[in-house]
Amino acid sequence: MVKVLFLLFLLAPANMLGQSTYKLVWSDEFNKPGKPDSTVWSFEDGFVRNEELQWYQPDNAFCEKGLLIIEGRKEKVRNTEYKKEGKSWKQARKYAFYTSSSLKTAGKKEFLYGRIEVRAKIPVGGGAWPAIWTLGNNMEWPSCGEIDIMEYYRIQGIPHILLMLPGARMPGIMPCGTVKRFLLTTSCKRTRNGLLNFTSGVWIGTKKQSDFI
Fold first, then answer.
1. What are the boundaries of the signal sequence (predicted)?
2. Which of 1, 34, 80, 106 is most buried, judged by most C-beta within 10 A?
């Protein structure tokens, strides 16, 4: 069983960032036991993207002791969209053998500029692909683009933390060794002049959006 622990801050206060111009406009410390706040968070359901093996379901996510816990489970679940002659990968699989949860704030909490900061404890075992990312709200993914604040991925068998844009030529990549779990505080700041500032324990750098495309 894999657990991913999240603590989310949006537009963190000045004393955290060392900048007096910031004002906290929203945060979620997940301090109410049970399901995440439904006025802020929605769940993705079923098979969603990338032909991934996991089946997304709300049962795998809950709040406990000030943490959002997302569990990856090995279990057999019937695909409710299965069709014997299904042409898409979402329809062709009769069962899923792994489950997880994917949460989003789309349509409930949306921001254009500012700083998003997340503290998370993530697994680094084989098959894990945890990510913290933002999307545009004016069209469907992948056309809307994305900003990956944190994406765990294996490169040549070595766990890495990636901070990047889709199709990026200049991602920030940090190997995180052979540890079983990885604890990090990661953030992304977007400004009106198109600058993106990535940090994850150490400063990654500041680039214009045009530098990545």
1. 1-18
2. 106
